[in-house]
Amino acid sequence: PPSAPSLSPGTSIPPSPRCWHHGLSQEPGARWTEPGCRSCTCQEGRVLCDAVSCSTPCSHPLPAPAGGCCPTCTGCLHEGVARAEGDVFSLSNGNCTVCVCLAGNVSCLSPECPPGSCPSPSPSDCCSCHPAKCSFRGRTYAHGARFSLDGDGCTTCVCQGGEVECSFAPCPILDCPQHQRHLRPGQCCSSCRDPPAPTGCFLDDNGVEFPVGQLWSPGDPCELCICQADGSVSCRRTECLETCPYPIRIPGQCCPDCSAGCTYMGRVFSNNETFPSELDPCLSCICLVR
């Protein structure tokens, strides 16, 4: 690295220049605070400013004093009230909790009452009171006791500081119509009746009701339906396996009859019957059932 320039004997270092800021002269290295909490310094004739950085090492600091920028820990601000250093105070709810302000921090202590007692409004004796008992319908109940009204379990009561509060047990929401709801003996809430067993099958299209086990054809002779025990309708189709070229079709019968004769050009002929052809009078036809 290059060596620092040497000074000849009798040569002096020139002083750092002063700073001019807002019409005022500032010494080199001077520090000051401007309005708006900006910290400025004079360095080599230049003014350098930055926002004041506050470090608050306490939980309940007091607001910055007039002309200051940072909160102070020489007291406490608790629930909107300024407290002096070392101040001992009680909370506004009066539950015997005692607090102290130390270096901007608030520490609170609450009394530990033994079982069966409760905090008292008096700070000198916070655990002297005892919860009042309840007298209800000729019986006495301790504070916090729960019991059912008339022993039916439909109403729950509780003893709170000498007063009895009762409320009805909530009932579930039923998804059945009103005429199917009923209240059974010894129960608090209604329940749904079981739907009646179906006695038959009701067909909405024609309003006819068939009894359970009834067979019928809905209009197609190849389809047969039956009324099931649960009120549903089950239908099946009949598949015709025997076929022939000229069967006889009987009205109301599903499958054509190939054993009774032949149907030819709209006429019915019996087995082994001979007849002239409608297409050619020189041809003779015979009906053969095979």
Automatic annotation (TrEMBL):
Matching Gene3D superfamilies, A to Z? 6.20.200.20, Complement Module, domain 1
Q: Which organism is it from?
A: Tachuris rubrigastra
Pfam families xref list: VWC, VWC2L_2nd
All copies of the VWFC domain together span 17-74, 74-135, 132-193, 199-259
Q: What's a single GO BP term from this record? A: cellular response to virus
Q: Name one GO cellular component term.
A: cytoplasm
The protein's name: VWCE protein
Q: Using the UniProt record, give the first listed, main subcellular location.
A: secreted
Q: Where in the cell is it found?
A: Secreted
SUPFAM superfamilies, alphabetized: FnI-like domain
> What domain of life does the UniProt record list for this protein's source?
Eukaryota
* UniProt keyword annotations, A-Z: Glycoprotein, Secreted, Signal
